[in-house]
Request: fold
Amino acid sequence: MLFFDPLYLIVALPGLALALYASYITKSTFNKYARVGSQYGMSGAEAASRMLSQAGVHDVSIEETQGFLSDHYDPTRKTLRLSPSVFRSKSLSAIGVACHEAGHALQHAKGFAPLHLRTALVPATNASSWLSYIIIIAGFLLSSQSLVLMGAIVFSMAVIFSIVTLPVEWDASKRAKSLMVQTGVVSAGEAVYAGKVLNAAFLTYVAAAVSSMLTLAYYLMRAGVFGGRD
Reply:
């Protein structure tokens, strides 16, 4: 039962399917608009810099980092890290992603509460991610529903984190879509296409939240909380 449980496949399959679909849509949309340049000729790094500067945020550094779509904002160091395909590229995909990450920096500067909450949850979420699996596996091996329930409770931290992430990512994209036009990074027409990249990327966060909730539901079932079985 530990290594194969049909119940897990039944419960988790929708989340897995959504995650695969979201990954496909994100990559295909990014690649599509990675071949479309902006009329103003800015790179992703230049676009993010302009957006931050004109918003009055001058204490955020922008660095190039390795990896495909590994772009992120580090609030602890006030650093925007952009992948090579975003940092150097002048495509609408690159500009959209870079401005989205700049949107996180603006959230930080403006004291956006969900971002601060997500940042505060990171240490506990990282710890719970591995600890919950250890407890749950022990519960399965010992046929202890109490241990499985304890692991599920610990795992719920990851679920909370994935849910809190949704408004953070949505707001960052909303800021990017508006400000990339206002600051002259792209035209209004180009912003529509850059926005499609951000919408596709947001779907991956929705998929992650759905997958984590379904996984939690499975653990609760195996713990006998509802619909469970020994």
